[in-house]
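Incident log, structure service

09:12 report received: a user says their structure output differs between two submissions of the same chain.
09:20 pulled the input from the user's history:
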Amino acid sequence: MFLNLLFWIAHFFLFSFLAYISLGYFRSGRRSLDLAILVFLWIFYTTCSLMLFGLLGWLTGGALGISSLLVLLILLSFKPCRTRLGQFLSSWTIFARELRRWWRDHPRWLKLLVGVATVFGLVRFAFLIWALPPFIWDSLVYHLTNVGQWIHQGRIELFLTSSERVYSPANYEVFATWFGVFIHHDLVIEASGLPAYLLGGLSVFAITRGLGGRQQAATVATIAYLSAPAFLFAVTNTKNDPYVAGVYLLCVAILLNIFPITSDTTTKKPVGMFMIFIASVLFALGTKTYMAHIFTGLVFLGVVEFIRNRASDRMASLRQKITAEMADSGTYAKWIFLGLLVSAMFLGSYWYLRNLSLKGTPFYPYSVRVEGTTMLEGEGNTFDLSPENFYYNLQAFASKFGDKQYRIVPDLSNTTGWGWVIYGMGLVACIWAMAVLPRFRLVFVAFLMSFLF
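09:34 re-ran on a clean worker, output below:
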């Protein structure tokens, strides 16, 4: 067991270090967004390594751990890497100092709220991870089925099961194996949603700051999002939805950072930001096909922001920074960008290409219907692309609005799952922001498009 834990720590340390090194090429100039990108890079790199070893048939704690130790030794044989390692270790001290500064900037009542929410959240997560096993249908039928089979066999493979859902995109399941492959047990498998919880919270904080909100407002918004019952249910029930939500929010934060409020707050690395945006979308697409639906809101936000800013000083500043970044990018930076894009294209397309070769349709087991005509035949639910689907989503939302129809359950059959914080404070804040913040109205419409389409 001690050796397995050592391998686990080595793998975590290696990919945390790699995420830290590469973060320099994707810095946004905003601390909260940089932290969100750092979390995403760790998730992304970890998933890539598990995917590679799984397809090669080496998905074991020993193989992952020994290879991580070897790579660390090779990296530390180079002086620049040893220098960066020292910076990586000292960055934790810097992070602690910045966290204390952030804490001091809050009034006493908000410190109390944050403290209570943090303690309650830690106790709740500890109980759910330790004592309560996953019980949602999706998790038991195909999410954890994949994870268990892959860890048991030491490879990523298809297998006979009672549900065709195992053909669904499975980036989340690949990442979730990290929480079980080293100890060969499902003891902490429910914790596999916590990185998405962290990613989503940091992204909401960055979005609020990108809209011009103060730190206190960003903190309250983050607490509201992290306390939503639907989100909490999904995080510790081994579902893939929190990862799609976290990546979506990260993309919104990136767009707000690329097209900032003033020219002096333009992102430091616009090309790097764009690379992270592409990698995030492709990663989410390989996690759940639903990303293709909600991507409409991101397209709308990006296009409108570009049109609004194209003749302004902010766009001129952005063009200058893009030119400077491309001119200053060395060979190493270009390899980082290329590696990120190739890896993202692989994670975003593998499951669809596999299904196309085996079943004749990339979206198997789902059917695709456009304007009432079935374009791709499957054996499961149907992706319905039509105006009627829009009206159906609108009616479904109206029938669930208020969360008063029934108690909130994981599948959200009769409720939105937003909870009292969103309905009690969030809607009031939303109405106020709509009235005084033009940019918030744009983000609201983008969210609405993703929500209903």
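09:41 both user submissions now match this output. Likely a transient worker issue. Closing.
09:42 reviewer note: The chain has a mean pLDDT of 88. Strands lie at 367-370, 373-376, 382-385.
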